[in-house]
């Protein structure tokens, strides 16, 4: 399925609410991702991400409809050569290969635009679809931390997947 990644626009807010206001999406994201997801949340999110230069978080657009989000979250201090990947796509677009390709594109963008050597993602241990998407996009499972996530009254494993720009090298 054809899609594009582009910077968020305030006109995307209504579609963002349509696709983000879904408990099946919220269950696998941090508590910083609200549920229910309101138009006020959408406006705040779009305003926040629009301030990043260069763009770090992109809208996923299919046939002129914003259906999800994918972004890179810069790290600091001793993690300054790493970026965390975050993403979601509306349920109607699951299983269509969009997210795998979007991850490949954002990885290329991240390595080209930021001085990092590693991009990582932290899917929940019970989010098998996200694990498969990362593996298809070339990520490798680096770690499983048992019971590290507490969400909706239950503990989940945290998985750490990563892809590297180059093999590890020390000076």
Keywords:
globular; 7-stranded mixed sheet; 5 helices; alpha+beta; 171 residues; 32% strand
Number of strands: 7
Residue share in helix: 25-40%
| Biggest pleated-sheet summary | 7 strands, mixed
Per the principal axes of the C-alpha atoms, what is the gross shape?
Answer: globular
Average pLDDT, rounded to a whole number, is 95
Task: Name the beta content range.
Answer: 25-35%
Question: Given the structure, what is the number of helices?
Answer: 5
- Stretches where pLDDT is under 50 for at least 5 consecutive residues are none
Radius of gyration: 16 Å
- Helix/strand order: EHHHEEEHEHEE
How are the strands of the biggest sheet laid out side by side? 1-2-3-4-5-7-6
| Helical/strand content category | alpha+beta
- Classify the oligomer: single chain
Straight-line distance between termini: 43 Å
Short summary:
The chain is an alpha+beta fold. The protein has helices at 13-20, 23-26, 39-49, 98-113, 128-136, and strands at residues 4-7, 57-62, 65-74, 82-89, 118-121, 140-151, 154-164.
Overview of the structural elements:
- The structure is a single chain.
- This protein is an alpha+beta fold and 171 residues long.
- The protein has helices at residues 13-20, 23-26, 39-49, 98-113, 128-136, and strands at residues 4-7, 57-62, 65-74, 82-89, 118-121, 140-151, 154-164.
- A 7-stranded mixed sheet has the order 1-2-3-4-5-7-6, with helices on both faces.
- The radius of gyration is 16 Å and the shape is globular.
